[in-house]
Design goal:
This protein is mainly alpha-helical. The protein has 2 domains: 26-154, DNA polymerase, domain 1 (Orthogonal Bundle); 170-364, hpI Integrase, Chain A (Orthogonal Bundle), CATH 1.10.443.10. It has helices at residues 41-55, 66-77, 83-95, 110-124, 128-144, 151-154, 170-177, 183-191, 196-201, 247-254, 270-283, 292-303, 308-315, 320-329, 332-364, and strands spanning 17-25, 31-38, 213-216, 219-224, 227-231, 241-244. The strands form 3 sheets. Strands 1-2 form a two-stranded antiparallel ribbon. It has a two-stranded antiparallel ribbon with strand order 3-6. The protein is elongated.
């Protein structure tokens, strides 16, 4: 009769070794235990120790690693921040500045952080914006634990690349989209300076009773795989705004099939509005993204002589502080005059295009 081989402590019948780690309690008060399996006991214990260090399980604040402090910070806010923001935080946790993640926050050195930034820039091609966001989030997590290294001030990040993207003119864009499925969403973005999430969030109920204004107060944010999140807020306080609605756009909006005031004005998916537009324009030899239509608004308004503070207000770019300054230094009559200049500019292009189409029809007839 074959005798069973004596197993060592922690060894399973499969021959592998298991190390269990108590990590807390669930919502019902039940203990949560995580198991780590490896070929040797040493490997299983190391896996458990690494998990404990990275996630800060049962560790005093001074012993927390950067990753554990960051994870605790993210978890404390996950129920109140947007899913897209949470996703961005987790990308930083799992992919950015990894060489310092297992360093204790009490032992973190500025030179180590600088080296991590240098490595991400050199090896991963991380942009200035990406590195700045990572440093800001990590510093906030450290501050929450009582450590403020002032990372954003003390760490050198790559200088911004002075790359100016040449945009097509508003006339080129309008000539390409006139009469297509892209005309209304593109005009809303380019003429009224709306983000794609704001264009897709507009409802017929947002139009004023006299049809002269529309209120931007809602967004439909794309979360991937054709999944949206509907929010009754825009990107920031300065983005919540009521803006002039030219009669040309009002008539185009009302011509769209709809059943009630609660219907979306542009009831299309993110890909239908943004990605398909980009592909359509590329096929016509024009390089521009849907978001850059907002840039085109700012460029056109600037060329018309519209003051910067009005462009910020009309386009909803203002932060809270800038918004206060804008309201302090602007007057309604001047704002209306600038808006009329913008309306006349786009109407002029549209009327020229209509006249061109009419001429071609007569000539062909």
């Amino acid at each position: 009769m074959k005798k069973n081989k004596k197993r060592m402590p922690g060894q399973l019948s499969s021959g592998k070794f298991r190390k269990q780690l108590f990590i807390g309690y669930d919502n019902n008060g039940k203990r949560i235990v995580k198991s780590f399996l490896a070929k040797t006991l040493w490997e299983a214990e190391k896996m458990a120790a690494d998990y404990k260090a990275r996630h800060g399980v049962g560790i005093d604040p001074d012993e927390l690693t950067v990753a554990a402090a960051l994870e605790k910070y993210i978890n404390s806010r996950k129920d109140i921040i947007a899913p897209s923001t949470l996703n961005g935080y987790n990308i930083i946790l799992n992919n950015r500045l990894q060489s310092i993640m297992l360093t204790k926050i009490s032992e973190l050195k500025i030179l180590d952080v600088q080296a991590a930034v240098n490595a991400d820039y050199r090896d991963k091609g991380s942009s200035r914006k990406t590195l700045k966001s990572a440093l800001s989030l990590i510093n906030s997590a450290l501050v929450a634990q009582g450590y403020d290294y002032h990372l954003c001030k003390r760490i050198t990040i790559p200088a911004a690349k002075a790359v100016k993207k040449e945009l097509p003119s508003a006339r080129e864009v309008i000539n390409a989209i006139k009469g297509t499925e892209f005309e209304l969403p593109c005009l809303l973005a380019m003429w009224l300076s709306l983000r794609v999430s704001e264009v897709r969030g507009l409802k017929y109920s947002d139009i004023s009773k006299d049809h002269s204004h529309i209120t931007v107060c809602r967004t439909r944010v794309y979360l991937g795989v054709e999944k949206d999140e509907k929010r009754d807020v825009t990107k920031n306080e300065g983005s919540n705004r009521t803006i002039s609605l030219p009669s040309y756009l009002y008539k185009m909006i009302m011509a769209q099939p709809h059943n009630s005031s609660d219907d979306y004005i542009v009831d299309r998916s993110y890909n239908q509005v943004s990605q398909n537009f980009h592909r359509y324009m590329a096929r016509n030899g024009i390089v521009i993204t849907f978001h850059q239509l907002r840039h085109l608004f700012a460029t056109s308004a600037n060329d018309l002589g519209v003051a910067d503070e009005y462009i910020q207000k009309l386009g909803g770019w203002a932060s809270n502080n800038i918004l206060k300054q804008v309201y302090t230094h602007t007057t309604k009559p001047l704002e209306d005059r600038y808006q009329q200049m913008i309306d006349d500019y786009f109407l002029g292009i549209l009327h020229d295009k209509d006249a061109e189409n009419y001429g071609n029809t007569v000539e062909n007839g």
